[in-house]
Protein 1
Amino acid sequence: MISALTNLYDGLGPVGQFALWSFVKIAALFGAVMTFVAYSVLAERKISAFIQDRVGPNRVALPLIGSIPIIGPFLTNLGVWQPLADGVKSFLKEDFTPSYVRKAYFWIAPAITFIPAFLVLAVIPFGSFLGEQKMVIADLNVGILFTFGIISLGVYGIVLAGYASNSKYPFLGGIRSSAQMISYEISMGLAVIPVFLIVGKLNLGEIILHQAQHGWLIFYAPISFVIFIVSAFAETNRLPFDLPESETELVAGYNTEYSSMKFALFFMGEYTNMIAASAMMVVLFFGGWTLPFGGLDQPAQPAEWLRGLAHIGIFVAKMLVFMVIFIWIRWMLPRFRYDQLMDLGWRRFLPLALINILITAVVLWLRS
Amino acid sequence: MIVERKKLNFWERLYLPAILGGIKVTARHFGRTLFKGKTAGKELSGGYYPEKKWTVAEGYRGAPYLVRDPEGNTKCVSCQLCEFVCPPKAIKITPPGPVMSNADRPNAEKMPKEFEINMLRCIFCGFCQEVCPEESIFLQKDYSLNGLSRSEMIYNKEKLLALGGVNNSPIFKWKQKAEEAKAQGIAP
């Protein structure tokens, strides 16, 4: 049986094997990210509850596990099963399409929001090697350009949703989001240029290896990091920049008319964007899957499974720290006014990013 | 009133003090909830809803129920004022009609044949209680009314009386009339 499988595997040839492993990696990453999305929603609810002196979701219990003496109630109190209930709920809810919407765009908008969020993850190296497989789905030499290209597609979903809903609040949300995302896209793109000036390569894997040798880039380009993280908040429509949604002004912004799974797609898209942004920050500024001690800064050899797994663990841990920051900020800072948002984007960050590029370039020129 | 806007200095305009202040406040609350288990619900009312029921204040307008007088008689006389005044038309009274055969005691021939309140329609405004000349309907303290179907949420006379209980008002509006009628020998 096993020999038959090995024969089949060998028979695939290099292209077939590459396709097979890519498929396996895509499936694993998709599963992992969906789980992260589900549990970041839980984390968001729990953290917000704790900050606001509440208890958060603590009722959903599974029939068998819930009745194990100490562990069952503990897990229930933690709300571990809540994502299951939420998922089932969004599938079972009525998928209502209002009569006045522009149907084709209304249907396609959630997918256009959701898909780019996932496509970004394709180029992110989430580990070194596991066996002989490189832990990145697409090892592109223009990884960062791909990322920015794809991220900027995400805005179309929101704009289309606002337009297709054919009612005033989603429309306002869509307009705001297009203005906001385009503005911050520029500062974000300019903020990472110093990183590439320092490293000299666009491949995200190479950036990580450079950081393993020379130290994390946060110490070389702190201003870039500040601009990048603030722009990431704006790009993912998170507070304090959640103007497209702004519940208090626009009902729910662009997704007011959406229900059931279509709404869930917007929701998952937002959290996937957060995960992608966190992963980007880890890769660009915090050394990706490396740690500067314990020999964890070198890629794992084919036989070193444990080290390969440790690298993935390190990457996930770093990413989760940023997820918590994303979530925590939401319950800490109030929303910016629209003119403040534009002011910050165009009149503060854009010049700052340009000066940052200039300074980095000059310093690199003087040192060479 | 014109609020004086304080001129922000450079440090404040950097927005960092606001962020630091925010971290301080949120971290304090987070830690207090996580490690000491102090939540607003526990501090203020000693627990959360299904385990710890909310005790309503005097004068709370909960579900309207019919009441009996201390002698166990239905006080309602089917005047239908509440049905008339009810803004969402939640009350439906079936009067006894000319036959008046459903009285369970002497001098109670106006007792309603059926009295229904649709609790799904009721808005708990209290107009029925206000308008009732017999003081026979009161908004009581029930606030959690549930049912598995719409028909289950239409409460009939029997249920309303059972839930309403006895009203201990010392005024017996019709008792004297009944005694007079009895003395004259015209009581039914």
Protein 2
Amino acid sequence: MAKKQISIWQEIVKGLWRENPVLATLLGLCPTLAVTNTAVNGLAMGLATSFVLLSSSLFISILRHFIPHQVRIASYIVIIAAFVTVADRFLAGFFPVISQSLGPYVPLIVVNCLILGRQEAFSSKNKIGRSLLDGIGMGLGFSLVLIALGMVRELLGSGSIFGITLLGEWFEPWMVMILPPGAFLTLGFFIAIANWINDRRATA
Amino acid sequence: MSTQSPASSKGKSKLQEPENLLILASSPHLHTTTSTQSIMWQVVLALLPATAMAIYYFRWPAVVIILTSVITAVLTEAIINRLKGETPTITDGSAVITGLLLALTLPPTFSIGGTILGAVVAIGIGKQLFGGLGYNIFNPALLGRAFLQASFPIGMTTWSVPATLAGSAVDGLSGATPLGLYKFEHALTGYADLFVGNVGGSLGETSALAILIGGIYLLIRRFADWRIPVSYLGGVIVIGGIFWAFSPDQFPDPVFHLLSGGLMLGAFFMATDMVTSPITRLATWIYGIGMALILVIIRLFGGLPEGVMYSILLMNAVTPLLNRYTRPKIFGEVQS
């Protein structure tokens, strides 16, 4: 690529804010909206997705010269699916409760466009080290937003965070926040705040 | 957006100043004193009979809910005006209407905290997030109510009977609404009670009489398009009547449809919201009949006893589309 390589540190940090998969590029919205009704679910989904992203980035970067261009998407999906199966079985084996509450969304990581997007846009064109850093940054950015979403929704929808009740008896939970509309509203506010901060930075 | 709006409003005020020095305008040269502000306060006036009946039937809880809702709505509007750096729009009365309408759609026993939340959502999300008065897609009061319905499904469906029925000593005797009674127990309520509002229900929806007084005033002053209530109510009579004609044992009659629930309040005060209702005549008829169809389907076959809120919100959503497809033909254009 003709583009000048950014620093190693930048490779990680870009996923946290500037190219954040949820806030900036709006990738992987299905799990973002569907499973963030509690902070724990957000954390579990974030970690599972990060694991799959990191592992498949590593493998696809290693294999980038061997995969024929014509069948690359199918090859990526096979690799991603292998790691999704690992994540799914791991969760089911060690954290059956979380696995149950995430339901079909763990197997669905395989079609998370964030993961396929990073392989297509990054790992297939970059060296192993940088692909790993990119995976770490993107996975971290994705997880942090999911946890934050889960915390806000759980606090307003159930009065607790990570299952610890924070708001007392006086608080009447807003049911809507743990329902799908609450996910859309919260995510909308998150993106609005992110854009607002970016605007202020740009004008400052 | 945030950087543009102050600039454009500054530009407007610069343009408006010279306008006062020399007015050049094409015909018509007739002027009226009608402004957004005067219309909005007239709507508030038209809502007073329904508000008075709400207070008469439900006493102190009604006063508390109405005041809470109106004050919260106006405060929210003022705070957001400040945050956006705009000139305050609270005196135009639109926030008062939203607060009042929201309060009139709430159950008499609803919590104060919930009322505050509803008013904040109605003004903050329903109106100001879209850009303020004139830019909102959905009726703000109904959006606030929909949020509350989804948030507090129990609180929003716990009804009390009017103080006139409960007796003097009892403060809040719980009881079902006429629509709830019909849906779950298949019991009809008398027309006379339905008409004057001596039944359970949301604060301002029970008295068809009070709403009609205010609503007809709005129609006479032409602050509301008569086609909307006519097509909505007429549609309910016709569609509800068809079902009733087929199976009078299974479905309620059209008069019951008309007088029960929030239909009157919705048809006269919410569906007619100038911002969220269609512009062209054909679109207005489709809008009204569409609401009637959705309402009857929800009432007869849905899980909820009442569907006025969703019928209006759903048709609000398609209003831009209706306007687009019913755009009048422009004459005098040369085919290119």
Protein 3
Amino acid sequence: MSRTIVGPFNRVEGDLEVQIEIAQGEVKEAWVVSPMYRGFEQILHGKDPRDALIYTPRICGICSVSQSIASAEALARAAGVERPRNGELALNLIHACENLADHFTHFYLFFMPDFAREIYRDEPWFEPVQSRFKAVKGRAAGDVMQARAEFMHLMGIMAGKWPHTLGIQPGGSTRGIEAKEKVRLLTILGGFRRFLEQRLFGAPLEQILEIANQQQLDDWLAAGDPAESDFRRLLQLSRDLQLDQLGKTGGRFMSYGVYSLEGERTFRSGVWYQGKRKTLNADRITEDISHSWMEGQAEPQHPYHGVTLPDADAKAGYTWCKAPRLDGEVVEVGALARQLIDGQSLVNDLVTRSGSNVRNRVIARLLELPRVLIEMEQWVRMLQPKEPFCNDSGVKKESQGFGLTEAARGSLGHWVRIKNGRILNYQIVAPTTWNFSPRDRHGVSGPLEQALIGAPVREGEKEPVAVQHIVRSFDPCMVCTVH
Amino acid sequence: MNKQTGFNVLWLQSGGCGGCSLSLLNAESPSLLHTLEDAGINLLWHPMLSEETGSEMVALLEAAVAGTVRLDALCIEGAILRGPRDSGRFHIMAGTGRPMLDWVRDLAGVARYTLGIGTGASYGGITAGGGNPTDACGLQFAETERGGALGEEYRATSGLPVINVAGCPTHPNWITETLMQLALGDFTEDDMDEWQRPRGYADHLVHHGCPRNEFYEFKASAEGPSQLGCMMEHMGCLGTQAHADCNTRLWNGEGSCLRGGYACINCTAPGFQEPGHRFQETPKIAGIPIGLPSDMPKAWFVALASLSKAATPKRLRQNAVADHIIVPPHTRKK
């Protein structure tokens, strides 16, 4: 079998190449290649730990706040500092704004344009889909960008700017919110809610969250016109193209949980496999470099003790990405994992019926828009102007800490060890490092490599459109993956 | 708009974070796509927006290099990775087996204008931090040193050197306005400062329009995060030296770093990533900050600072170390 190289992949964040072998009209083998290395872990070595707050958000322009949150949490744990309640609320709002903007961008600008490709010209839904979702030219893009930019005004008020704020500190947020700003924040959320209700869902957000299982979802699809709801259009396409049969993985999921408030996480953490949810033990995370262009680590290591040393000539290597494993197992991360582990009923039913696939990943992502926006409306109301937003934080000369959070596209962890007041070791394991992991030393592929097996290849296709759908269903972030 | 009549822009991401592209999407009123359309700017390809992927996109690059598709502006985002050992292998452009370094050199050879988008593509930036493990540099600079990936002598076919739309990230309008001026034929070498940044924003200082100006005037300083006072004395703020219009143009509606409660780190400048001290702390000698405001004689600064400190009103002294206004301005009664 000859190997087909697909790349550069766009409408993902960063650089990605996928190599596939095709036979009998389907993909038989796949290798995922992350072709860029920058070396943040090496850059951070020896720096004042607090400078990580400048460097780590710049790992990634799309998960910038998530990186700051993970870094601030790792530093807070190392320094033993706590946050006032306003600080927690402010950080949740900033983080949620990024995550929702990412979901929104992914759906309209990254994922849907593939259905407006010429290969679907003969489909009955092609004309309306093309006119709405065609890359750059579709009617949705301009309006979506304006709605996104207006939603991001929350960042202007609360975080100074986006991406790359320095407002997220171990002790909370640098920006106190006054009463007049609190009402402006509510106005911004209201504007975004209106767009979601009028265009994306075509229904009140609360009504969308009442859909509790696949039967009710099918009924809801049948009850309205896909021309008036982009969510209905997605469901229609998913049914016609059987996206629930595409891009299946082993179905083991992990979430670190996210949005901390008074000792709890709004979306809980855990591991899910074959219908059972278990507690997450982050001590059982290791990174394997057997198939990476890396050296300096004979055995898989926990990130506290891992090293990141590039070796472009590593013999078995085919990517800069490492292979993270939990208890030695491959896990899938992302909105689907997060909502499943949190017990969202529709997601639970969808996964029980059809496992992990393209359709379910995209639905779970869209369901987070109403779920999180409703939380945000509550968090703004809970802000107490004139109460503190930030505690000061120093650095303990000998200490260590970790920060676990969820970016839009899945679980993000930072681990830092500090010696003589300087960074001795800083390791980052990003969401797409999990999802786009190469094979490990046992030859076991990561989630995307598994999901590509069996992808159908249409007549005459060299770079199958099914591969495009599967890859983008993970909402990959390649700059985070390797960093 | 088509490739014959419009101003053709090709955008590639090199060794950066993609944050300048994401920032670009924040353009508003009108949105990015409407702004470009109205200006006659045709996006040949952008990694986040275009439909073409894989071989379709590589064919487009080859056509540009061959001259069959006109390349008006080449926008490169992110540092250029030259390592390991000058091979460029730290960044192979997916699907092509060729280092991005080589693609950039080929495309820059045919581009009418070449733009470094962000401080990485301009000077190296964050990716060149620490020991610079990937030998990262900018298109025409390695930090303050001329040269970079394209060399000191490089000129685009228009005759202009690389235009450095520096910033980490860049403001969306710094990019759109520069592209629009180029498309109009309004942009010349005189419109660039000594680091080849567009003077449209680089002739300003971040200090201009800073809402903490009154605290600055009286040297009423913040001592910890979230406090309202001037951040120059203790918190590492470089706004009085940093070239950018962040506090008059504003970000994401009404923001800026200082309005967000944290220090300006001078992210539009070459070498900003290695200030030689902790970012959020002002280095001082004998209690006086080392970095003085641009164009300010030291003796005057010291004299004015001690005078204004002596005259600081109680309102500013108290508010400077609070996270909300605790003393409102006095109302004069007739």
